[in-house]
Structures are given as structure tokens and as C-alpha cells.
Amino acid sequence: QVQLVESGGGLVQAGGPLTLSCTASGRDISIYTMGWYRQAPGNQRELVARIINTGSTYYRDSVKGRFTISRDNAKNTVYLRVNNVKPEDAAVYYCNALNWNGDPSWNWGRGTQVTVSS
Fold it and tell me: What is the pLDDT of residues 86-95, one digit of tens each?
């Protein structure tokens, strides 16, 4: 069974940088499209970035230019770098693999909470 463990969240000052990590166990992520999602209170979980196995990336319009998704297949880990953090980035961040239909493939991890101070 695949286990996803997200880390790197916490309290960050608006305008600052942030790097989140997601490590998978139980499955080799190298062949999968991996994505980062976030869920703010009262909102649905939304996909913010994804990276396919060749390294090509996609970003939600609202985060383009500030978010960078990357992967280290040797470490079975996906990263999300956030520059110029904004208050609206506050949320619980999750990662997951995406299936051919663009839907999450595996059970969700606990996520990592990002809180933004202004």
C-alpha cells in the first residue's frame, strides 16, 4: 500500500519562501504524474501543480510564476517551492499521483499545514 508523507509546512511570513516535500513509500513514483494539491478552510481541495515523468510541468493560473514543482525519483520525493508566499496560500498541502484521467490515484496523506503571517 502506498503511503504519502508531506512535510515542510508551518508558519511562514508573507513574501517569504517555502519548500514542501512529499515522500512516497510502497510504490516507485518515477513512472507517475505527481501533483500537489491544497485545501483551505471551507474550500475544496484543488490541484496547484503537477509534473509528469518526463519533467514537464503544469501550474494553476493563480500560482504561476511563484510555485515550482520538482521531483527526485531516486528519493521517491516530490517538492513544491513557493516564492513570495501570499496570505491566500494558507492551506493544507497534499501530494498524490494522478491517473490517466487526471484524478488522484492513491490514498491521501495527512498533508502539511501552511500558515501565512502578514
Answer: 999 999 999 9
